[in-house]
Write a structure and sequence with these properties.
The chain is an all-alpha fold. It has 17 helices and no strands. About 45% of the residues are buried. The model is unreliable at about 115-130 and about 410-415 (pLDDT under 50).
Length: about 425
């Protein structure tokens, strides 16, 4: 109880610092004083470079270690395959809902001053590629080049292939050493990220000052308002419509399931952590919903790791919004490509501090997009994160319920 209270107090202080930095940055930026603008531009450039430094290892290690860890679950193949099936279906549907809302709502662009010359030039070059050239640029012909160039698409492809290979390989001493080495590197990376997050109020101050000096408040409010509407609206549609439809398709009553799992969903809403909620989710699923302990104790830890409905939607919508403001033409093939990338990135998101926000930031810095836009999203993200975490735990519960239902039908032998 003491640890939980300390965590809540720490999160409250963190948000107070972020909000304070945002307010001060806006106040300082409105007068548009020359020397202050130069200082803030320098600080913002430093933080952009630091994010770019951490972008490549964050994406690669997160995807590889997550997929590699699934290899140890092969002894319960049927349950795992069913879990993976429903995880992919619900995650893809969440991203698809976000994409559909993005097309329908069509948020406008922020003023051009926010984008920055470097982001525009990088995205301009990116958008001039034909689809054939773009596809060939994704397929790596050199192991080192994608890392040096920060080619995010190639890196995800490489990480996915390596992670799946490690998951399929026989667990020998060498394989275990390799996986543990990658996990140790990831822990080292997390420590660096933790230090960066500690100093993030300074970065928010600089980004907010830039935005206040460059933006017309009316245009920003309209565009960002539509963006937030898409994110929260997509989460609500997934929570109250799409996931209940999945349950109904398996003959499971959605209202009964939600009422039984409400303690876990509410805890997720307030803690903003699926991992912290996991013990409550498992206890609630077993004792209140009646899910088999064997299924609940196997499925829910996996889902906490890879079943990120809200994260997939956030990555997709935010990436499209940032790229659109960076000058890239969002054609339907481009949107569908990023839908796939958002799903893969969400699956590989486990354990990354600040979750999908930082991972989206890494993806955008990797392609040179104008990440200053995300500086004003960050203070609002705490609300988005609450809703997304509740949706993720609700989705975990649905996957566990559907998997338990299917396992009981396929094999009436004891699952307890």
């Amino acid at each position: 109880m003491t640890i939980c209270k300390n965590n809540v107090n720490g999160q409250r202080r963190q948000m107070q610092l972020w909000m304070g930095a945002l307010v001060i940055g806006v106040a300082v930026g409105i007068p548009a004083i020359g020397w202050i603008d130069e200082v803030m531009n320098f600080i913002a450039s430093v933080y952009t470079r630091l994010f770019q430094l951490l972008a490549v290892p964050t994406i690669v290690l997160a995807v590889i270690t997550t997929l590699a860890s699934l290899g140890a679950q092969s002894d319960s193949g049927r349950i795992f395959r069913t879990t993976l099936k429903y995880t992919l279906l619900t995650t893809v549907s969440a991203a698809a809902v976000g994409l559909l809302l993005y097309i329908l709502v069509a948020p406008g662009n922020l003023p051009e001053g926010i984008n920055g010359a470097s982001g525009l030039s990088a995205l301009s070059e990116y958008s001039q590629l034909s689809y054939k050239e773009h596809f060939l640029s994704v397929v790596p012909n050199n192991v080192v080049r994608p890392f040096l160039e920060g080619n995010v698409l190639s890196l995800i492809l490489i990480a996915f292939a390596v992670g799946m290979a490690l998951a399929k390989m026989r667990r020998t001493e060498g394989t275990e050493m390799l996986i543990k080495g990658l996990q140790a590197l990831q822990e080292l990376l997390f420590q660096l990220i933790h230090w960066l997050i500690k100093t993030l109020p300074l970065g928010i101050l600089a980004f907010a000052e830039q935005l206040a000096a460059q933006l017309s408040a009316g245009v920003a409010a309209d565009s960002l308002g539509k963006y937030i509407l898409i994110i929260l609206g997509g989460n609500c549609i997934q929570f109250f419509i799409v996931l209940p439809l999945f349950l109904l398709s398996r003959g499971i009553h959605p209202l009964h399931t939600l009422s039984r799992m409400m303690p876990a969903v509410l805890m997720a809403l307030f803690t903003k952590s699926s991992a912290a909620t996991l013990p409550v989710t498992m206890e609630t699923a077993e004792k209140r919903l009646g899910v088999s302990p064997k299924v609940a104790r196997f499925v829910l830890p996996i889902c906490t790791t890879i079943n990120m409905n809200g994260c997939a939607a956030f990555i997709l919508v935010t990436s499209l919004f940032v790229m659109q403001n960076g000058g890239i033409e969002l054609t339907l093939p481009t949107m569908l490509l990023w839908l796939v990338l958002s799903v893969l990135s969400a699956i590989g998101n486990a354990g990354v501090p600040m979750g999908c926000f930082f991972l989206t930031l890494s993806l955008m810095t990797g392609i040179g997009a104008p990440i200053a836009i995300m500086g004003i999203i960050l203070p609002v993200y705490t609300i988005i994160d609450m809703v997304e975490t509740a949706e993720n735990v609700w989705s975990d519960s649905c996957v566990a319920a559907m998997t338990d239902h299917d396992v009981r039908r396929q094999a009436p032998v004891s699952t307890r």
